[in-house]
Write a structure and sequence with these properties.
Number of helices: 12
Largest sheet: 5 strands, parallel
Strand content: 5-15%
Distance between the termini: 23 Å
Shape: globular
Order of helices and strands: HEHEHEHEHEHEHEHEHHEHH
Strand order of the largest sheet: 7-6-5-8-9
Radius of gyration: 19 Å
Length: 309
């Protein structure tokens, strides 16, 4: 595999290998501190990001590599009208691997066709966010010790939420998974996902607008924010942004095994009082993102601890 554009570019066995590598790095990070010595990661972020960009940069630094790039389109030659393909052709002459975020769906796929080095999709519009999904899978595996036999609740913006779309595709490949899709009518899972994934594959799923009734039966609650940047109409955003707020009182309805995940940033869809609940896993999840990206960078660059030794 040269690039990672979609989480489905990875087989379940490859995902398992990445999870195992990430866990090994967690146990002994110092052992991996020089495996990417002399390698350079270019972060091409045409859209604002905090966690994803910084976790990629931290991942490369902790592997002993270097980082170059930009954090917004205005600070790149895209502001002058340069095409994505030209940007990537040039940058791949300077770096060994590229992480790219772009507001347009499909832009990283197009870029990968012109890149001379491995390219990672760090998010493209409302389409894909494979490294967030790998982070989610690592977190679920760490919390439960498995990726099968789970009931996954996805709550909030299921229409535009690329993290939810990627997670549905990834978890659909494991056994005995049930999805509970919790959203306002206007933000339901897109019809193409319902038809081409949930229905076509005969997956066990239900849709509801009621978070409280769904909570008792969930193993994982994947909360998402209503994304202002995906709306064309400000009035629609204002009307829907507070559709679901997870509070301490609502957490009391769930079982002790529940784990709450969130790709972050949150706005107000999870009350800060929930942060102290041991079932709140979203900050552990954010930390896991660095380690899974370290494992992915190593895989795409073809380096290993054994190889360096």
């Amino acid at each position: 595999m040269k690039h990672l554009i979609d989480v489905l570019d990875l087989t379940p066995n490859e995902i398992e290998d990445l999870i195992n590598t990430a866990k090994e790095i967690m146990k002994e990070p110092s052992a991996y501190s020089q495996v990417c010595q002399g390698k350079k990661l270019a972060t091409l972020f045409f859209e604002p990001s905090t966690r994803t960009r910084l976790s990629f940069e931290a991942a490369m630094y902790e592997l002993g590599g270097h980082v170059l790039g930009f954090s917004e389109a205005a600070s790149s030659s895209a502001a002058k009208g340069e095409s994505v393909s030209d940007t990537v052709r040039v940058v791949s002459a300077y770096a060994d691997i590229i992480a790219m975020r772009h507001p347009k769906e499909g832009a990283p796929l197009v870029a990968s066709m012109y890149s001379e080095v491995p390219l990672i999709n760090a998010g493209d519009g409302g389409h894909n966010h494979p490294t967030q999904t790998l982070t989610d899978l690592l977190t679920i595996h760490k919390e439960f010790g498995r990726l099968d036999g789970l009931t996954i609740g996805c709550c909030g913006d299921l229409k535009f939420g690329r993290t939810v779309h990627s997670l549905l595709h990834a978890m659909a490949r494991y056994k005995n998974i049930k999805f509970v899709l919790i959203s306002p009518e206007e933000l339901r899972v897109p019809e193409y996902l319902r038809k081409e994934l949930l229905i076509k594959k005969g997956l066990d799923y239900e849709e509801t607008t009621n978070l409280e009734s769904a909570l008792p039966g969930l193993d994982v609650l994947y909360m998402t924010r209503v994304q202002r940047e995906r709306f064309f109409n400000e009035q629609d955003y204002i009307r829907l942004k507070d559709s679901y707020v997870l509070t301490k009182e609502k957490m009391a309805l769930a079982g002790p095994e529940l784990r709450v995940l969130h790709p972050l940033p949150r706005v107000n869809e999870i009350s800060m009082e929930v942060d102290e609940d041991p079932r709140a896993a979203y900050f552990r999840q954010a930390k896991n993102g660095k380690y899974i990206r370290m494992a992915l960078i190593m895989k795409l660059l073809g380096v290993s601890l054994e190889g360096k030794k």
